[in-house]
Every structure is written in C-alpha cells, then in structure tokens.
UniProtKB/TrEMBL annotation:
The keyword rRNA-binding does not apply. It holds the Pfam family BPL_C. Residues 8-186 form the BPL/LPL catalytic domain. GO terms for molecular function: biotin--[biotin carboxyl-carrier protein] ligase activity. This is biotin--[biotin carboxyl-carrier protein] ligase. It catalyses: biotin + L-lysyl-[protein] + ATP = N(6)-biotinyl-L-lysyl-[protein] + AMP + diphosphate + H(+). Keywords: Biotin, Ligase.
C-alpha cells in the first residue's frame, strides 16, 4: 500500500505480484481500453524485462523498482520525443540525488549512472497519432536493494550506501519527482529542463575518448533539438550523433 502525494501519477497503481514486462503489460492495456494518464503498472517480479536496443532487463525479484507509467504528452510532436526523455531522466535523477552525491550522472540518452556503475535505465515507448504522441509508456528499472550483479558495470543504491530501503517509501517519492519534471515539461519549461539535464550529464564538457567509426578524442558540448549528442572533435568541429552512432570508451 503506497501513500502518494502526487496529483495524478500513480492514480491508480496496478500492482502485479509477477509480470512478464510492465511495459508490455501497459502497452497491451492501453491498446485495449482507455487508460487514465498517470496509471502505474508495478511488479515485484519481472520475468521478461526489456531494455533498450532489444536487450533484456534483469532484476532480482522484490529488491528493485520495475514499473511503467502511462503518460499522455499529446502536446509533444514526434520530433520532440526527446523532451520527454529529458523530463523523465531528470525526475529520476532528482529522486536519486536525495540519497547520493554528485557522482550521480545521467548518461546520454537516459542511463542513470553512479561513477561508472549503472543504477537504472529507462525504456520509453511512444504511441504516435498523426504528428503527435498519443501516449507514452515510461518503463523504469532502478536497482535499489539488490545485493550483487553478474556484471561489474551495475550497482544498486544499497551497494553504494550500505543501507536497505523500503520500496513502499521510495516509490511514492520517485513518482512525485517524475510528476514534477513532467509538469514542468507540460508548462513548456523545456529549455530549463534541458539545461538541468546537461548539468548532470556524464562526461560533459571535458575531453574523453569516443568511438564512432574510429576512436577519437572529443568533448560533449550539448544535445541538439532532436536529442542528438553534440560532440566537438579533434579539429573543433561539432558533430551530432544518434544513439547507435557513438559509444563511450571507458
Ligand atoms: C535500459 O536498457 O537501460 C532500460 C531498462 C528499462 C527496464 C524497465 S523495468 C520496467 C519496465 N518494463 C520493462 O520491460 N522494461 C522497463
């Protein structure tokens, strides 16, 4: 039982003890019937979680957050999809920042990192109508109490702080924080949101090694209006990259 202090996010919460993928569940539900904006699908055990680029999302049952939020950003054109990514990743960032210091970063486009460890990810699936987004399924996976990982690249809030957290207490805080940034997006504060997003961006404004066709030294200088990553290369020229066109080298 969650105690919510939101206006509409989490009203209602559909809690499934177990679920294949909350994103798939939400998508099927929204295809079948009218779903109220803010509806949350939450599960304690996700058996076929999906990540970006067709990857699987593994999460230890009962330890972490695996949920999807249905939003209706009908004010966003398809070309503005990335604005939603900005608002959501910032909402998650602000929530986690209450527990962690400034080593917490958003890795473009929307991974949540602490130092080099991935703490969580976002999978946004938009349903389009004409030129606009009709509704969006916001899938969020956050590692909270998981005690260990197969991969050295992942971590949890518990591993980082040494504390155990009550999901019942944390989930309302997450939903509130996402509602705040989403409402700001709805009020057209996208420029402010974008600046805040850039302020927490992993590897921004300093030289690092990247890989596109070849390895190169570059500096992230921003994102463009479509959400492409703007990287200044060795000869000071700035190029825009799509998600699959550039990789970070550690
Ligand atoms: C990523 O690859 O980083 C995105 C991971 C998103 C995982 C969440 S968990 C809840 C929701 N349901 C899914 O099947 N995926 C998302």
């Amino acid at each position: 039982n969650l105690t919510l202090n939101t206006l509409f996010v989490g009203k209602p919460v559909i809690h499934l003890p177990t679920c294949h993928s909350t994103n798939t569940y939400a998508r099927n539900l929204a295809a079948k019937e009218r779903v109220v904006e803010g509806t949350v699908i939450l599960t304690s055990e996700q058996t076929a979680g999906r990540g970006q680029m067709g990857n699987r999302w593994e999460s230890e049952p009962y330890q972490n957050m695996t949920l999807s939020i249905v939003l209706c950003p009908t004010f966003l054109k398809i070309s503005e999809q990335f604005h939603l990514n900005i608002a959501i990743s910032l909402g998650i960032y602000n929530f986690l920042n209450q527990y962690l210091d400034d080593e917490l970063k958003i890795k473009w486009p929307n991974d949540i990192l602490y130092k080099h460890y991935k703490l969580g990810g976002i999978l946004i699936e938009n349903v389009i109508k004409g030129q606009y987004i009709e509704h969006a399924i916001i899938g969020i996976g956050l590692n909270i109490n998981q005690g260990g990982f197969q991969t050295p690249k992942a971590s949890s809030l518990k591993l980082l702080t040494g504390q155990h957290y009550s999901l019942e207490e944390l989930i309302p805080k997450l939903l509130k924080s996402i509602e705040e940034t989403y409402l700001r997006l709805r009020q057209y504060q996208v420029n402010d949101l974008k600046n805040e997003y850039l302020g927490c961006l992993f590897r921004c404004n300093k030289k690092y090694t990247f890989k596109s066709d070849v390895l190169f030294e570059g500096k992230i200088v921003g994102i463009d209006e479509y959400g492409r990553l703007l990287v200044e290369g060795e000869t000071q020229e700035v190029k825009a990259y799509n998600f699959k066109e550039i990789a970070f080298i550690y």
